[in-house]
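EI: anyone free to look at a 325-residue chain?
SC: sure, send it
EI:
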Amino acid sequence: KHLTASLKPWHGPKRILTPEQFGCTPGAKATPFIQKAIEVAAMRGGTVRLAKGDYVSGTLDLRSHVRLEVTKGARLLGSLDLNDYPERVAKRRTVQDTNMGMNQSLIFAEGCENIAITGEGIIDGRGANFHGLEGIHGTPGRPFVIRVIDCNGIHIHGITLKDSPCWMQNYLNCDNLLVEHMTVENQANFNNDGIDIDGCRNVIVRNSSISSGDDALCFKGAAQAPTENVLVETCTFFSSCNAIKLGTDSQSVFRNVLIRHCTAGGVSEAMRHVKPVGADSGISWEVVDGGTAENILATDIHIVRARSPLFMRLEDRGRVQPDQP
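SC: here you go
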């Protein structure tokens, strides 16, 4: 009740800006024009609206009080040129940077407040065009679609996310994250997680559907900040790996997590997939880096096509930053 009452949608002036106002034309790479619209919108708050078909873009830096909206029939397409994804090295140093080199993304936000990604359109990372090996020690040359770090007040609503080169979306050390009515189909490459929530407080994920080649819903502890006060409800999570997962990165605390009224498990033959059908697990709790998991409840979960419906692991893997014990 507290989360439902306190987490609110994006709020801001009704001002709308478009890339076309800043010179974007059909067929042109849209990055500078979308970014200019974002910068102007950030001055007083407002919405940057993509509504004219396809927009091909590299890295976009989201700013406070800006909503990025992709309307029905429009698509934001990730550039196929890796040079269009300059590194964004997070100020908050974590194992994702020091050990895994995860520094590129299509949409990046750091230190922002009151931001949103919404609309009935599609954001497509076109990840099948980025070649790499599956691994847990780095994913060079494969950007995320969304990476949000140290932000407060994030609203993801209605959007369809497709085919990231790597993880689809990563929220790290954020407060007040509201995700609703989102569709994810991340079936194009290796390490195709659906949503990764890392060290975030006050989180709701509801009325959403995820199909992913790797973990569908994953809570992580790489931020070395607590993940607490989380509600996940009325969602479907399908995966070729783990449908609902806590870990494996687990350097901090997971506390007060409620997951209810969901369907979780493996992809079927009828679904688009890049790995074998079925899931390794329906629900997987794995603490291996010294963290703590407490007061976590998954209830009314319909588990399908999972080789292990529930998997639990407590171990000493000890993945830490190089200068840490």
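EI: The helical segments are 2-6, 31-44, 95-98.
SC: 👍
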